[in-house]
Every structure is written in structure tokens, then in C-alpha cells.
Amino acid sequence: MSEVPVTTGVRFLRSHKVPFIPHLYEWEEHGGTKHSAQSLSVDEHQVIKTLVFENDQKKPLLVLMHGDREVSTKNLARFLGCKAVQPCTPQNVTRYTGYQVGGCSPFGTKQTLPVYVESTIWTLPRIFINGGKRGFLVELAPDVLRILSPEEISVAI
After folding, report:
1. Is the per-residue pLDDT at 1 higher than 70?
2. Phi, psi of 18 (to 5 degrees)
3. DSSP letters spanning 100-137
4. Residues in Cβ contact with 105 at an 8 Å cutoff, skipping those fewer than 6 apart
5. Is 37 helix (H, G, I), strand (E, B) or coil?
6. Positive or negative CA dihedral for 27, 13, 20, 2?
7. How do the domains of the chain map onto residue ranges?
8. pLDDT tens-digit series, residues 95-126
């Protein structure tokens, strides 16, 4: 296996003494979690997407969601008590997180953002989540996400 990329996400995990298993794979434009799950021979439900949204006041937030599910923006807005939420533009994703779309990790973001975790993620034995670079996932226990002080949500569709 190639050397583990030392991303901001990896530095964050190491500084918090979080054990993780690095997984590199051939990144594919528009491949998404389906491609990464197939590349690593894991269930797409265990591959967790880091999604960056903005509320109606242009305040950014992260949503961690199963790879095989989508976020109901209507339910998310209702949960947050705002009129609407929408996905960020790729430029704003990079501006808020320091990461590129397709390589966005919830760990070590440029700005500290509120994090929301789909409740069923906690039930998984292991998760695979972006380590801060396209084609790079880290495998870890879902409980590790608690270092992000997330709020639990149920907005999957």
C-alpha cells in the first residue's frame, strides 16, 4: 500500500490519539460512495459522506450521512429551525473546510463547523469516512465521531 497521506484530517486524528486504518483507492470523478465502497469491498451503508450545507443565513454546517442515503433538506431545515438549507458550492466547501469536494473530511476543517450525524451511523460496527483527500478513507469506530461534538439527527431518505 502507498504511504498514508498526511492531511489535516490525519493530523487531527493523530493529535487526538484516534486509532484508524487508512484505505487508499483510485478516486473517480462522480464515482461517489458507490465507487469507494466497491473499491474497498465494503457495504456502501458503512461509507459515510461528509456533506457541507448552508442554512438560509449562509451559515455552514456538516452532515454525516450513510453513503447509500440522501439528506432530506426539508427535514434538516425543520430540525435546525430555519426556512431552508442547501448544499454548498464546491468553492464554499473548500472555503469553509479547506478540503475539495470528493475529499472532504469532518476532521480538521479550516473553520469549526456544527456537525450533525445521522442517528443510525452509531449502530455500525465500523465506518469508512474521508481522511481529507480524494481516494482516501479512514476506517474507525463510529464513536470516534463524538470528538466532533455532533448533534444526532434523523433526516435520511
Report:
1. no
2. -90, 120
3. -TTS--STT-SS---EEEEGGGGG-S-EEEEEEETTEE
4. 7, 8, 9, 50, 97, 99, 129, 130, 131, 132, 138
5. helix
6. positive
7. 8-153
8. 999 999 999 999 999 999 999 999 999 999 99
The domain made up of 8-153 has a fold known as YbaK protein (3.90.960)
The single residue listed with the C-alpha cell 493523530 is 14
**Tens-place pLDDT, residues 29-57:** 888 899 999 999 999 999 999 999 999 99
Could you tell me the pLDDT band of residue 4, with boundaries at 50, 70 and 90?
confident
pTM above 0.85, yes or no: yes
CA distance 21 to 39: 15
Nearest CA among 81, 87, 75 for reference residue 118: 75
Grid-cell match 431518505, residue found: 157
Residue 3's pLDDT is what? 76
CA gyration radius, the chain: 14
